[in-house]
Write a structure and sequence with these properties.
Elements: H1 9-142, H2 148-159
Length: 160
């Protein structure tokens, strides 16, 4: 085996040093800067992405705050509109109720007046009929015809 031959050790170590040195120079001059540049590029990209994520987070929080304030304002406006409509409808209903009550009161007063007039007219007619009937009854019972004034006074006294 050539590796165990002591006479070739010096040349093997020499070529090992040259090969290792050349490999070290290639790696140090070409590969390491490329790898270092990639790592630095990746590090800066991650930092930029984190900064962008932080900006997006702030923007999202601001948008959420704006949305919540807009929603609160909309709710307040909606409640105000509902209250105004409720008050308007209540006022309209109250006005309609007042008009209806006034119309009904007028109709009731008119009906009461007609009933009173009918009652008075019926009582007058009844008074005349009662007076005639009373005069006839008195004439049949007593045989004498009472005076019309006396009959009228008696009927008025009874009818009030």
């Amino acid at each position: 085996m050539p590796q165990l031959d002591f006479s070739t050790y010096l040349s093997q170590i020499f070529w090992l040093a040259i090969t290792f040195g050349a490999l070290y120079l290639i790696v140090a001059r070409m590969a390491l800067p490329a790898i270092g540049g990639a790592i630095e590029h990746r590090r800066s990209r991650i930092a930029d992405d984190l900064d962008a994520a932080e900006r997006f987070k702030r923007d999202a929080e601001k948008a959420l705050a704006d949305y919540e304030s807009s929603l609160a304002e909309s709710r307040a406006r909606a409640q105000k509109l509902v209250q105004e409509q409720k008050e308007k409808v209540t006022a309209e209903l109250e006005a309609a109720r007042a008009r209806t009550e006034a119309e009904l009161s007028a109709k009731i007063a008119e009906a009461e007046a007609r009933v009173r007039a009918s009652k008075e007219e019926a009582l007058k007619e009844l008074g005349g009929a009662i007076g005639g009937l009373t005069g006839e009854i008195v004439t049949r019972l007593t045989g004498e015809e009472p005076s019309p004034e006396r009959l009228k006074k008696a009927v008025e006294k009874v009818l009030g």
